[in-house]
Fold these 2 entries.
Entry 1:
Amino acid sequence: MPTYLWLIIVTVVFGVFEWLFTAKDNVSARGWAIAGLSFIIGLGILGLFLVQSRQSETSLRVVGYSSKLFDSDLVKWNLTVQRNSPPDALKEGYKRMSADISAFKLFLIEKGIPEKEINIQPITSFPQNDNYGNLTSYSLNQSVFILSPDIKKIEELALNPEFFADRGMIMQNSNLAYLYSKLPELKKQLLSEATKDAVARAGEISSSAGTKLGKMKEARAGVFQITEPYSTDVADYGYYNTSTRSKSISVTLTAVFKLK
């Protein structure tokens, strides 16, 4: 509410209070004073409502949008190697598992995968029981993941289980996750483009309405949706699909502009 309006209301209220106390012996005067005070307060509330309504009408809210297709430049191959060991040969089972992983690591290096890209996790073991609760064996598992920019080579290795079949090894949970190393820079680019789109949309709307567009006074970016190309998948907290090499990224930006 404008300052001058507040000053008028305060002056009138003080005047009414002065009248109220000086006319305390006059019941009729006091009644009129209370009615007048209520009227002034009502006018103040109405004035505040009208001013706020006018302020909301002098702004324009638009949503800008930007999207882009891109290809991943990294792949992460996750897999778990498993072997079963009799309860009385657990130590030997650990040795065989270590030998399996060492052979697999050497195989990857021979195929041109740098050793620094190969990550091996500790062995875990799980007891296996029959229907009567008797221990029958141990399941030994060891996880490995390879993070590499050579997507084609990793795809060829991941899709060919011959190495494991020849050695009697069980490969579980093998999957490829496609990533992008320059994602932060790409997000900045999309936010810039979404902002420009919001400005363009606001300009078109204000021009069509015969008003002049002022400065942007508020902007709020939405979450990024990274999906397979032409997908309609979205999530409230963002979406990141790593199952495909080619991807689509999109973002919205809500902006509020002043209107002159």
Note: The mean pLDDT is 85.
Entry 2:
Amino acid sequence: MKLKLKDIIAIAVVTVISFPVLYILLMFLTGVAHIEFEQKKETPQEDRKVEFMKQTARKDSLAELNSRTFQALQKERAQIENDRARLIEQQQRIDMMQREMESQYKLLQGERTKLENLVSRSDSLDDKKVRQLSKVYAAMRPAEAAQILETLQDDLAVKLLDAMNDDRQKAKIISALSTEKASRITRMMGL
């Protein structure tokens, strides 16, 4: 295909004219260029009003924010005070219960001491009676003493025999006992 000079000139003119148009269109599409329309300039008095309104709006929003913060702090302070009062009350109850437990403990210690004294007195009385009885049985004939020991419980019989000082008399009394009773008593005595 052969191009004529007229065609070449037409192509060149179209290219030269369309290139800036396409270039500007491409810049708008990519966002590099944009059109700004001139706004009506406000008078200084209007500027002051707008600035005053902006400042007032900022102050109002700060005041509202401060008010909300203050209210939140007040709620938190009230909650802390309630918690503190509750903790103080609980601590007072715990202290009272502890004092009560200490007094109960002291009372129990006193009662325990009394009981221990009574038991020791009772034991000393029992020991005294056992020694007296053992002297009586030691003075008896072995057969008579054995007959009485047969009727007693084994632990009491052991105590009576242990309290006797004369080992020969003990042996005679044990030999006069029934074989069953004698074996039980000697086992309990550790002989």
Note: Residues 44-139 form the longest helix (96 residues).
